[in-house]
Every structure is written in C-alpha cells, then in structure tokens.
Amino acid sequence: MAFRYRQVFFEDGDIVSPKDWNRNIAEYTQEFNGYLDRDNLPSSGVTSAMIKDEACNSVHSFSSTTDTTITGDIGVWQSTDGTTKFSEVSFTLDSDAMLILEWSGTWEWSHSFQLSSGGIAYRGISTTGASDDYVEYRILVDGIEVCRLPKSTFPRVCDSAYMVGAIPVAGGNHTVTVQAKNSRENDSSPSFIDVTLKERELFVWVRKR
Amino acid sequence: MSAIPVTQLTINPLRGMDQRWRAEPNSAEIITDMTWNEQDSWMDGPGYRRIVTDYVVRGSNDRRGTIVTANAFDSESIITSLHWFAQHNGAVQYTVWETSAGELKIFNGSEAPSDIFDYMVDRENNAFNGTARSRTYTATPNIRTQSFTYGGRLYLLNGKDEPVVFDGRKADSCGFFSPAGVATPNMLDKTNDSDPIRVSDSNIGAGPSSDTSHDVGFAYKITFVNERGQESPASSEAASVVYKQLNLTTKKIIPVSIPTGPAGCVARRIYRSLNLYSGGDLIVGYGSDIRTSIDNYYFHSEIQDNVTEVFTDIIPDGLLGAVLDGSQLGAFPFNASISAVFKNTVFVGGMTSNEIRFSRPLNPEVFPEDNVFQIGDSTLGPVTALYPTKNALVVFKQRGIYLIKGDPNSGFYAQTLTLDAGCSAPRTVMELPGLGLAFLSESGVFLLEGAMTNTGNPTRVVKLSSPIPDLVDTINKSALLNASAAIDRNSGEYLLSIPTQDKPDPLLLFKYHYEVGEWSTSENWPINCMVTSGDHRGYVYFGTWDSTDIAGIHVISRGWEDKGGLYSINPSYTSAYMDFGTAFQSVHPIRFNVYAIGYGNNDIECNFAINRELDAVYSTARSHDQRYPLDALPVYGTATFGGSTKGVQDRFSDHRPVVVRFDVSASHKGPVHELQATFSAQTRRIQIVNYNVEVKGGMQRKPKPMTLSYGGKTSR
C-alpha cells in the first residue's frame, strides 16, 4: 500500500508553524524518485502517449537472405563463414534489462540428394557414414550461451527451426550472436558436407527495468 | 512575623506510568492519548482513520446541492487478519486481509477511493469472495490466520483451511498433502498389439542386453512438483515389471504409466530402481551382491508437464541420477496454525500435539516426517507462538519458553529456557528494537532479553508490566487470543491491543514507549488485527472488529483529528502522587508552572487532587493559552497572507517551550500530604516538557531510614 498520510494535525488557534506544513508535505515528497507505486496512479492514468519511446522496451534485429556456409568440422562453433555473419546484433543499454531472444532460419545440406520411392527426401547411399552428421545452433549473449536448438541430422535435407531464450543483463554494451556447428559424433569418413544457411532472422526484445 | 516560605519542587524529566503505591514523583499514574518524543517530552498522541477517504456519491439529490458521501469500507465485514509483504526489494507491495465473510482481499489503490481491492484468486481463477472460495470464520477468540513470507511469497495458514501461498497473482495450495500416485510399468506396446517396444542399440534401455534367459526387473516411484519446485512425498512402491531381453542385440523398452498430479502440479519426477534381479534371481538382501540395497530409487527424469500419462524408459542403469532420499520429502502439515522462518527453514506448530515440525532447508513446503520436535509436555499448555530472533527460534507455550538453535547443516536442537512464563496471545510477540522480545502472558507483559546464546549477556525473562498493575488487572484472560500488537517505529511504541473484562473485543491500547522504557495507554481502539508496513513508510495499519460503526482498515497517524471520526483524542497526563509526608508535616500548593510547548491560543488545562481523594480539587479544570500572554503570534483561523495580528504583519512562527502558570489553592481541603497533578489539552495539541510545583510547607522533617538507625543498610 503506497498511500501516504499526514503526520501533523493542527487546527484553528494553533500557531502557524512552517514545521507542521513541511512535515506533512515531506510525507508526500518522500515518495518521489522511485517510491511511487501502482496505488498512486489511477487506473488507465498512464497512457502510452505519455511514455517516451523505448523507455520500457526496445527491439534490435538482424535479418538476412544472403546465403552463408556452415563448414563441417568437429567441435567448432562458427558465427560467420569469413564474409557473412550468420546473425548478430550489438547495442548499448543504459539500464538493467531482460533480453528475450528469438531466432529462426532455414538451411540446406549442400550434397545432392535423390528421392526414395516413397517420395521422402534423403541422402544417397553413397554417403554411408554421413548419416551421423548434424547441424545445431545456439544464441549467445556476450559469449554466454542462452539457448540451443536440438541437433538437426543430415537426412533432413532442408530444415528450418525456431529458438527462443531469455537472460537478464546489466547496462552497457552487449552483443547477441548466433553460432552454428556442423559436426558428427565420430570424426570418420566420409568428408564433411557443408550446410548452406539461408533466410534467417535474429530478434532481440529488450525489456527494461 | 515571617511569611511561610515557598518551596519550589521541579518535576523533571517526565516519565511514564507507574501505578505502584510509592512511585517516583516524575512518573505518572495515568497517561492517555500521549506519545513520548525524543525531545524528552510528552505530546498528544495519534488517532486513526480509514486508509481511503470518503467519496461523493452522485445521487438524485446531487443537483439540489445535497452531497452524499460513502466509503469503500462502509459495508466491510469484520477484518479477522491483516498481512503485509513486498516483492522486488519492496518496489511492489501487497496488503492482504481476511474478513468474517470468508473473503481474502488484496489492496489495489489504483481505483481508490471507491474501488480499493481485488479478491485473491486461486489457480482456476476462483475468487476467495466467500462464495466461490471461502475461509473459515470463528467468532470466539482464536489464533486467526498467521502468515510468513518466503521467496517473495506470502504463506497463509490458520489450522482450519487449506494453507495457501500467494505470489502476487494467485493463491496456490502449499506443497502437497499426500504422496504421489503409483507409477505402473508394463511391457505392452499400445500401438502394436502385445509386442514390446524394442531398440537395437545396447547402449540405451534398462538392464543388461545379455539377460535373454534371465529375468530383469525394475520398479518406479514418482513425485509431484509444483511451480515453486516443492516436491511431494514419493509414491508407494509399485509392482515391478519383470521380463527377459529379446536377444543380445535388441532390448525391450518399458512403457510406464504415471498418474497426473493435483492442481498446482507442474512436473513429475521419476525415480527408478536398479535391476532387481541378478542372474535371474530376485535380490532380496545384502548377500554377495555389490549393491547395498535394492530399496534405493535413483533419479530417472523429470516430466515437465501434468498431462503425460505414459513415458518410455530408455535410460540404462548407469545413467540414473542421485538416489531418492524419501526421508527428505514430506507433506505440508495441513492443520498447522503458527509459523516462522529461521535459517532458511520454515517451522510450523499449533497442531493438536506439542509438535514443532520444520521443513527441508530452502524448501518451505516440504516437511520430512522426521523433522519434528516434541516441545515440553501437556502440562504446559499448547505451543502458542514461534518467533525467530538473534540466533534462536523462540518457541512459546502457554507456560514455558523454549529455544530452538542450530542450523540445517549441523542440525537443530531444542533447549528449555523457562517454565515460569509463557505466551498466551500469539499475535502480541514483537521484537522491541534494542531490548528484546515482548509478549503478553496470562500474568502481564514480559520481555525476553539477552543474546539467546552464551555471550555473557544473560538470556532472561523480565516483567515489563510491573509498573501498570491496575491496567493489567483489566485484561480479559479468557479472550487473550484477541490481543494483538505492532511496532510503531515512527514513534517508538509497542502497541498492545487488549481485551478487557467489559470488552472481549479489544478497545484498550497499552503503549510501551520502548525508547524510554515507559508505559501509557489509550482508549477506543477497536483493533482486531494489526500490522506494520516493512517499507520506508513504517505505518501501522489495523482492521476493526466493529463492522457496524467503524468498519475497515485504518492507519495510525498523529495527523488525524480524531479516532475514526467516532472518538475524540483527549491527551492527558496525570502524575503519580507526590508524597510530602516524609519531608513536611503538610503543604499547601499555590502554583503549578508547566513548561509546555507554545502551540497557541488553544488551552492547556490543569487540575489536581490531594491525599488520594476520589475527586479532583476543582470540578472544572483551570485552563490557559499555550503561549505567553503578550505574544502576538499569528494563529490558524485568523492569520492571513498579507494580514496582520495586533498590528504586526502575519508571518510564520515557530513552536518553543513556554511557561504556563496556574495559581491554585487547596486550603479549603485542609492539610495536603500527597499531591497529584493533571495536565490535559482542551482541544488537541499539547506537549509537556516538565513542570514545577510551588508549595508552602509546614514544619520540615528529617526522617531517617529505620534500617540505617538500626545499623542495617539503606537498600535491599
């Protein structure tokens, strides 16, 4: 309960003292600078027009349709093919915030494929052993992993996915990066098959304190 | 002929009530509606008002100029309990109250003053409005709903209703009150007749793949988990599934049916035994098997929903997690009515026995069955209150005080502190800053002081109410459960609401001014429950039992004109009897000089009594402005901006001590041996620093203490 109540009573006949006034007014002024609560504001008393843009929320995004390659390698997380970043945004916050991170993308294994009699896409038998290959993705904030997608295996020729995560951060500079790994459980033949990352979008929702 | 000399006796500093026969002259027999302040004076005390103002009801008479007002509490029921807690380091606060109509309400001031509360709702959005959900109301004196906070949540329990935990949005049931249902494993594949589910990878699935000719068997237990991570007692042991592996390269997979949990269950934890068979033989003991027991269940997985009815078990024995320690799980004691949090552990009591149960550390809703203390025996009455202070949890019985010490790591233990004093009013236990723990017992108000540990500062119980025996005599012992207390940190007072013999519902207030260690009192406080806000405001709120004339929640403040618009504030200081009999044969008082704060034209009144007579000397008290007669200080009601008073331009002034003189006489009453003065305010404001009495004394005496004359000591 954030109501305040006067602390000094005075009435007709009492000497006019500024201390009485100040004491009662101080009761209200002590609420400024951080103590006002929902009780102090009428319902619907604050409308969106009264709030400065990005005072409560801001949005940062990365969107691309430029293909980029996820090179096959054991254990290596990559964020770029050397030229084109998979997905990354950087921004500066002036206060603590909660970051809600969303990423979606599509990709395709670069090896040719053939159709089975059932019409389901799968890799040719000639790539025996490569069925252990997989690609996985994760979102990092300042190098800290926030969320990760389950592995998508080689037999799924074309695939897409969506992941979401959240993390509280302090004010300052922050970088949100999407990394991918094209790998397999055991490093044996045949050689790795590249994955082409296609349309993708990283969305960062900053919920400020 | 010489004049009788005038002796001036200064009474300074003024102290609180002392109703013993021989009291210090600077103490008082009765102080009403006054507060001691840090400038060492007694000033007019607080009143109370509803926490929201009246509002104008726009009725049909409005256009004719008749204003009809109403208040949000006009139709409020009896408020039976009041609770305050905050989240986000105090940024979001909640005031919760319970009514005799079975309601649980949460203050919401955003639509005040007409609409000021929301009903608390449960998970299914059923409101605690006395209809959809209701709380039990008992009219006779009872312990009421108690609360504690843990992890930003408010826990409410009264021993009658289901304990609930309020997280700011909804009320949920506390923990679980019974074990989870039984998990049933079987070998049926529901999708393909009776063929078992199988897997051709020997690295997954339960049991060794080589046991194609020997039985393997597994049993399961499950627990329910609520959204606060609190785990229910584990299910009882179910029949195990027994089978043989299909072949050396193909293992069978076990589908396990699991029950769904009650409302509030958000996950279920699965525990599984190791293979119950060795070489096809059921392991029944310790024997030669390297495993110490087949009774152990190991963490298997957590199903994070309350929907799944069947899961398939593909986890081999080697990947099972930690062993299930069933002794660390337990149901919430549903009939607990008192509670406290001590060292990350919740303690509850008030059950039908002398038990104190305590939770698993950091798990406020999990009460292992072995976490129990038997406190005292049946001859000392029930456990009445729990209060954590310093390095101990204080357990009060009706006659007896115990300390629970220790910590969760090394274990808790109980000690007996005293069997002489106990607490009879659970809601009166309060910590007085710098002093100790105050509480009300059958024989008065006591203080538990000391460090509660062996530090050289002895832990002991002292009686606080010794100076006010007459007031204590008025307490209604059969209604002590109606008493409640709060700490008003703004004025340094321990407020104790007391049921009296003529009013089982409290109307009398004892005030202990803990900064100076003195008592005063006040009347007309219909308090049923009260609470101090823990924020920077530090207000004391109370709910009333009088739903007819003064219903609702009130806030205490010196800023109010009166008490709820119903009772007036009458500050009065009546001194103890000053005994002149040892120094003079008799005296004649001629003057009181009161050193008071000059508040203005509103009068201070003075009267006095002599020789312990029933009536004061004057039937009408003498009165005088609280200022010097020649002062032309502007006062409210006449001063204006730009105006003048007695030819001097009006301006702000200041309050300062002035001497107010009262010439008196009691010569018509005969010789005076004892004298008692009363100072009061004619309207409201008054502040007394000290006073002196001028008397004409008769023959002086020089008494000697008898004990000294006889060679003894002057004191015991």
List the helices and strands and how they pair.
The complex is a heterodimer of chains A (209) and B (716).
Chain A: H1 18-29, E1 57-64, E2 68-70, E3 87-93, E4 97-109, E5 113-115, E6 121-123, E7 134-141, E8 144-148, E9 152-153, E10 158-169, E11 172-183, E12 195-208
Chain B: E1 6-11, E2 28-32, E3 34-37, E4 41-44, E5 47-50, E6 55-57, E7 68-70, E8 79-87, E9 92-99, E10 104-107, E11 117-119, E12 146-150, E13 153-157, E14 164-166, E15 171-173, E16 184-185, E17 197-199, E18 216-218, E19 220-226, E20 241-243, E21 251-257, E22 265-272, E23 277-278, E24 281-282, E25 298-303, E26 310-313, E27 338-342, E28 345-349, E29 355-358, E30 372-374, E31 383-389, E32 392-397, E33 400-407, E34 411-418, E35 430-432, E36 436-441, E37 444-449, E38 460-463, H1 469-473, E39 484-488, E40 493-500, E41 503-513, E42 518-523, E43 527-532, E44 540-544, E45 553-557, E46 562-563, E47 567-568, E48 572-575, E49 578-579, E50 587-597, E51 600-610, E52 622-626, E53 644-645, E54 648-649, E55 657-663, E56 674-681, E57 687-697, H2 706-709
Antiparallel strand pairs in B: 1-57, 2-48, 3-4, 4-57, 5-45, 6-7, 8-9, 9-10, 10-11, 12-13, 13-14, 14-15, 16-21, 17-21, 18-20, 19-22, 21-26, 22-25, 23-24, 27-28, 28-29, 29-30, 31-32, 32-33, 33-34, 35-36, 36-37, 37-38, 39-40, 40-41, 41-42, 43-44, 44-45, 46-47, 48-56, 49-56, 50-55, 50-57, 51-52, 51-56, ...
